[in-house]
Amino acid sequence: MQLLIFQINAMTSFPEHEGIYCHHSRPVPMVETMGVIQRVFRRGTHYSYTLDDGTGTIQCVIWIPEEHRMLYSTNAIKGLEMYNIGQVVRVQGIPGTYLRRMQLTVLPGKISPCHDPNDETVFRLRVLHQERTAYTQESVLPDIIFKEAERATASPATKETLLQTLREWLNLREGKTFSYFDIEGDEGNSSAASALLKQRFPSLHPVHEEAEKMKLITECLLILEDENSIEEIREGEVMTFRVLKGAYRKRRRRRSIDGQEKSEWLHKVIVLDDDDDD
Q1: pLDDT digit of tens for each residue in the chain (278 aa)?
Q2: What is the pTM of this model?
Q3: Are residues 11 and 123 located together in one domain of the fold?
Q4: What Pfam families does the entry give (predicted)?
């Protein structure tokens, strides 16, 4: 982000995120500025320049790599040339604080001299234009950022989650007959299967999503058949399912080992039909 020095000095930090500074509530990972060198200082480990652009001053620090610290002069090394008082330079650095004052940490090669006397004027005009048209405008993040954040914070989907969703759906249809398409067509069942697919196969192509979703739901139906929760009914080429009467009763609340209350479905003795002699 291109800023004048007084804007850099006015940046604020996020209280909950130390080391992250913002300008108009926008996080600023890197700053670019220009100014005249007022002071040059070298210690064994780093260079220090004090820049002045007419709006304020700021200290810029360049850390010398360990293998070059014993050299008397680093002018022959690209990116570590020293500049003199009075030169106009362009600097790109990471904002930070030292002794409660803002400073820029400049990586080697991120400082360069300006030979055109108009460069500083053009830079100021560009900063003022961006301040009006971009920096002060409300930033809108793409929807995908929120979707990814929601997916990252959501509890991981498992097959047990899908089974629980199907059990909820079946409990409302006790004794009724339904087809596979009734199960898949339900929004809740479809969403639970899609969540499990994204958990297992994050890069799955949409073309294959329906086929994989069908496999997942079929696997769960087989498990429910083994639990005697549903039965399969075939009439010619048509296959339907029926929720067995009494397959579920109301939830009970139980306390787990960690002390938290959990709910579960209790299976009862299966009765196929009230009129069945078997």
Answers
A1: 999 999 999 998 876 677 788 888 788 889 999 999 999 988 878 889 999 999 999 999 998 888 877 777 787 788 788 899 999 999 999 999 888 899 999 988 899 999 998 999 999 999 999 999 888 877 666 676 666 666 655 556 678 888 888 888 888 877 778 777 788 788 888 888 888 888 777 777 777 788 888 888 888 888 887 877 777 766 655 567 777 665 554 444 445 445 555 444 444 433 334 444 44
A2: 0.50
A3: yes
A4: tRNA_anti-codon
Whether residues 96 and 171 fall in one domain? no
Query: Is 269 inside a domain boundary?
Result: no
Q: Which residue has the tokens 């780093």?
A: 46
The amino acid at residue 205 is H
Answer yes or no: is 149 within a domain.
no
**What is the domain range of residue 189?**
156-264
Is the Cα dihedral 150, 155, 156, 158 positive or negative? negative
Residue 42 amino acid letter: R
Separation of alpha carbons 79 and 56, rounded Å:
26
For residues 114 and 17, state if they share a domain. Answer: yes
